[in-house]
Specification:
The protein is of the alpha/beta class and 614 residues long. Helix 5 packs across helix 20, helix 6 packs across helix 7 (159-173) and helix 17 packs antiparallel against helix 18 (392-404).
Length: 614
Amino acid sequence: MKELNELAKKILDELVQIDKPLLVLAGPGMGKTYALAYKIKHLVYHKKVGPKEITVITYTNEAAINMRKRISLKGEKEIYVEQSLQPSIICTMHKLGNRIIKDNYLKLGLEREFKVLSSGYLKQILMADCAQIVGASRKDAEETITCRQNGNCNKVSDLKCKICDEYIKLLRKFNYIDHDDQILLPCKLLNENKDILQNERQKAKYLLVDEYQDINYSQWELIKLLSGDKPGNLFFVGDDYQSIYGFRGGDPKYIRNFEKDYSPECVVRTLTISRRCPPSIFKGAFCMAQKYNGGYDNLLNEVKFTEDSDANIKICNFDQQNIEADFIARKIREIGPSYEVLVLVPTLDYAFPIKRALKKRYVDFTCDYDIEKTDLYLINVLLGWLKNPSDNFLLRILLQKIIDRGASDIPAKQTDFVGREDSRTKREIALKQISDFWKDIGKGKTLYLKIKVLKNNSSFRELLNIISELRASYKNESTSCFIPKMIDGLKIWKDTSKFSEEINSLIEEIQGLTIAGGECNVRILTMKKAKGLQADYVFIVGLENNVLPRKNADNDSKAEDSRLLYVSMTRAKKELYLLHSEKRDKNITKTKTSTTERSEFVDAIPTQYVDVYS
C-alpha cells in the first residue's frame, strides 16, 4: 500500500506540472476527483493563481459542494486550500451559464427576474403544444426535445426547428428559459460579444472540468469558447466508459475526440491505481463494457489494486421476484449495520418487492422518490394553481394530468399506445384546441379564461366541471369538504394501498428511514443515480434482456446500457451481487409478459470473474 501511495503521488506531481491541454483518464475509484483537487492546490500555492482566475466545472451540484468541502479539510494536507484562496467558481456548467445569462440578460431580451423551467414533464407538454401550433403532431416534438438536449443548434427550415422556435417564443413570452438555454444562450452571447467573451475568459484562465465524458455539443462549445486560442491551462478528468447520460444529450465522442480537438499540444494520461473495487469485480465489469464499447486493450495489465481481495462477482438467478427480494433482505440483515449497502434498480417500480422484504426483516433503508409521478405531486400542482390562477404553466400541467389519467371525456394517455385510431384522433384534436390558446395568451389573459370558452364542447365539459368545482370548493368550503371532492375529481388514490404507499414513500424521503432503530445503512436508488457513490456491498436488480439492454436496442444503445451497468457494478468495495428473476410482475416490467430472460451483459462477463448461484 505504501509503495502504491508513493507511486500515486509521483504520478500526480507529474500531471499538475503539465502546462498543456491535459485529459486525465481515470476509471472508477482511481482518483479523478482527488486529481482535480490536487491540481487546484498546485495552481493556488505553486503557481500563485488568484481565486478569480480559476473555474472548476462539476457535473452535479452535489459534486461542486463536495469538492469545496474536500479542499477545505485541514486533515487532507495534500489538497487543503485556505478558504480565502479557493477558486471563486466551483459549480456545474448550467450554474455557470445561468450566471452569465443573469449578468447579460438585457442582451438576450429577458427581464431581470427571469425563471428557469425546471420540470422535464412540463417541457414535454409545452414542446408538444408548440408542435401542434405549427401544424405538426404532438409526437413530432420528441425529435426537437432530443435536438435541444444534444445542444447542436444549427438553424434550418425543417419541422423540428419550427417547433423549437415556437417553443422558445412561448417561454420568452412568460420570461422563462429552460435547462438547455442555460448553455445555448451563453454560447450565443460569447460568440456575438467579444467584450463579454474576454471577461469570461479571464475568470476561466485556468479551466478544470470534471466528468468530461458526459458533456454534449453546446457544453463542448462553451468550453472551447472559454479556453480561447491558448488552451494550455485546461485540465479535464473523465472516463468514457462512465458516459451514461445520453438521455440528457451527453455523448462520449467528445472525450474520445480530445486529442483531435486540442492537438498538437495536448496530453492524455491514465490513472491506473484502483482504490475501490476488488480485482475480479473491476476486471469483470471492464471486460463486459469493453465488449460493447471497444478500446483500452492493455488497461487490465496496467491497473494496480489496493484491495487485495479474491471476491468474485456473484450472479444470482431466481424463479420469481419475491424470492429474489427475500434473498436481498436476508443478505442485508446478515451484513449488519456497520457496512454501507447499495441496492440499484432499473426503475423505482423494481424497488417495491424489495422494500416489502426489508420491512419484514426490520431493516432500515432509504429509497429514492420520484415526486412528479405521484398523486401528491398532482395535489401540489392543483393547490399551487388555486393559490395563483394566473400561473398558466401550473394549469397546463394540471389539465394534462387530468386528461392523461382518464378523468375527463378526452381519451387518456394510454390511447396513444393501445387505443383505436378514432380515439387517438379525438385526443390529438382536443389537445390541439388547448395548444392553440397559447397564441392569444399574454398579459391580462390567462389560460383559464381562454379554456372556459370550451365549456359547451362535449370533449371538454367534464374537464372544465372538475376544474371549476375544485376552484369553487377551495374558495368557499372547508378542508373536510374540499379534500373528498379533490380525490374524486382528480381520480387519485383509487384504493387505500396506493394512498398508504405514497405517504410511506414520502415519509421515507423526509426521514431518511422507514423504521426507527437504524440497523443498517441501506440505500435503494435507480442505476442512473449511482454515479459518484460507493458502498461495501452492492446488489443490482433487473438484469434481464429488454431492460438491460433496453428493448430493441441498437449498437449505440447497447453500448450506453453496458456503460450504465459498468458504473453500477464498480460502486462495490467488497461484494457485488447481480440478480435476475425469471418472473416479474408486468406492472414492474411494463411489458406484456411476466417471463424474462437473463441479460446478455451478464453472459459477457468472463467466467473466471464470477460465481453463479441458482
